[in-house]
Amino acid sequence: MVANNITTIDNKGRENTLVGTVLDRKKSNCDVICGEHISKSYGNSLILHDVSIHVKAGDIYGLIGKNGSGKTTLLRILSGLIPDYGGDISIDKRTKIAAAINTPGLFLNMTAYQNMKTQAALLGLRDDEEIQRTLKNVGIDRYANKIVRDYSMGMTQRLRISMALLEKPDVLILDEPVNGLDPDGIADLRNLLHRLNQEQGITIIV
Q: Among residues 155, 148, 142, 167, which one has the least CA distance to residue 192?
């Protein structure tokens, strides 16, 4: 594993260490995402200070840090959800990024299939077979017609990933995807992400 220590500042001005770790790496010399000297403040609170991150194509890259260390802020910046920040981010123009960072939002009174259909419409997709393939890919196709309100936490996380996969991304960014999962759910989700990385070549940042 390759680890980089990243210094961040929490909202009380305390210095934290956020560790970026390559959990799995294929042979590649290409930086699919390159961030240099990233900083971000909210008012007088400095959240990220001089952060640099290099993610290569085929990596499974994990950010490890305690609450308030800036993980979500950094992921939102890398995803393009926060446009106002200091520093430079370079992303290969051919790279398609999808993210599940508190989103995609789910309609709890709708089925998984209806949620996927809504997301597909927003993306301009009309292929119902692709929806079915994607649900099967993450292992919830048997529950496609179940109301999402009745989903377990693990199934909900898989549905969010499935919705992100509709974009056929090269890079998938997930914010704390194992939160709330039991040990079996964590193992299942880890296996899913490893399979997406190995079989589809998706670079994953978590």
A: 155
Write the DSSP assignment of 65-85 as a string of letters.
--TTSSHHHHHHHHTTS----
Lowest model confidence (mean pLDDT) among 66-70, 151-155, 164-168: 66-70
Longest dimension (CA), the chain: 50
Alpha-carbon dihedral 187, 188, 194, 197, rounded to 10 degrees: -150
For residues 74 and 56, the answer to whether their CB atoms sit within 8 Å is no
Residue 52, token pair as written in the block:
């640099």
Q: Residues 6 or more apart from 49 whose CB is under 8 A from it? A: 7, 8, 9, 39
**What distance in Å separates the CA atoms of residue 6 and residue 100, rounded to the nearest whole number?**
22
- In this structure, the strands spanning 203-205 and 45-56 are unpaired
pTM, rounded to two decimals: 0.84
DSSP letter, residue 142: G
State the Cα–Cα distance between residues 54 and 18, nearest whole angstrom. Answer: 14
The encoded tokens of residue 40 equal 């971000």
Burial (0-12, 13-18, 19+ Cβ within 10 Å), 199:
exposed
